[in-house]
Fold each of these.
Amino acid sequence: MLHLMARNSFTAWLLAVLLVFGLPLRAAEPFWWHNGNGELNEAGQQLTDLLVPEPSALAAMPVAERDAWLSHQWRRVLERRARFTQNSLAPEQGSAGFEQALRSGELNAYLHRQQPDYPAYQQLKRHYHALGNAVSMTTLPAGPEVRPGERDAAIPALRRRLAELGFNPAPPRGRADALDRNLSELLKGLQQGRGLVANGRLTAETRALLNRSPAELRAELRHNLRRWLLLPPTAPERFVLVNIPAYRLTLFNPSGPALEMKVIVGRPDWPTPELGSHIEALKVNPDWTPTANIIREDLLPAQRRDRGFLGRNGFDVWLPGIAGRQDPATIDWQQPPAGLRLVQAAGPNNALGRFKFEMNNPFNIYLHDTPDKRSFGEAQRALSHGCVRLAEPAQLVQNLGWSLPEYQYTRILPASQPIPVFLVYFTSWVDEGGQLHFAEDIYRKNQTI
């Protein structure tokens, strides 16, 4: 009885959905499955290829529920894509395009146009399917910490496990059971990307990281394959991609990566948002107007500790209803006036450095220079208030087509055409050589998908 009630409730819900979207009642037939045999039709195969659901999750549902689940999951992708895209979203890339394809019955052609054509996406999917075909993987045995140059029975297993994950370690330089320099450097890069102590040793934490099951690895890759769906399916000819967990910016041209550099991103309590926008202008010698929360949480405490902090760093005070700039020394910083605004003048100490790349978004997020280059030497660089600091902004200026300006004062130089920029959250990705990489989940987003 309860089973029949549940099935009737689902049927009523499905009919309500059809009415809301203006679909004819005959569309209650499965969109994604062949009637009668429960096999995916061509459109269903394309959709599951995009969504990469865990097969066991679908197998446990009746066909009607599987069909509704797939549609719901794709709508969630489109909702996230709409939030991600800060400029106008083409109807084809949003919910309207999907609903039109449902009504017209042109799902095959529609989903074919939704397939991302980025090489890194295709390579990541190949790794995902390879893990699904893996019957078993080498397990690293428990044991003591192994330092570079030391021998241990676990080292041959370590080499096999790394090869199974696509890391292709170099052949041993000496004894096969020794942790040689090449193998240690490979471990160091893996540890650094994952937020572990990057000492190149085979530690207990490194064993645990490498010993993750194929199912655990596939789950992480699945999260990241879904994140690729937020970008326009067809890659722009030229675009900037900032991978937040990797602390890396890459400029892509039609031939591939043209420029890479380190970046600093937002702290875990002040995260850099995922978004897609366009670089519309370059601001040379920018001033800086910090947001109210930066003033409240960072600048006011610094000024209270040191009354010369704001003046020494080039800040002027602006008060509502009072014309002209105010000297910070004239303000009672224990009880500052409401509506106070701070502006840091352009100059060598300005927090934005010499260049600010203007991009449309409601979060007041942009790419910029910084006078403090020391932090780029840190392995973990989630240090900012959300904006993205660039290690080599002058290189990006030149590669985007601007001549390096020598202006003394603040100037805004429009881009000859807007340059797409994507701030993404990839904790696993594939480089140009086909190498699979992992990064620390700095904002713990993999736990909430």
Amino acid sequence: MYFRIKGRTTWYESVEQMQTDLDSYLEQYNTKRPHQGRMMEGQTPYSMFKKGLKMIPK
């Protein structure tokens, strides 16, 4: 969905430029943006992932 919108406003000269934009978007989406999903309690997807790792038995 991101590149559908971004691709209308940005002309990418290379795959590397597109990858840079995608990387920054994914960082924002997963580590900075609070999530509204069920049982997320406003936390980021990355923080919930890290909590889940702690729950895995060793």
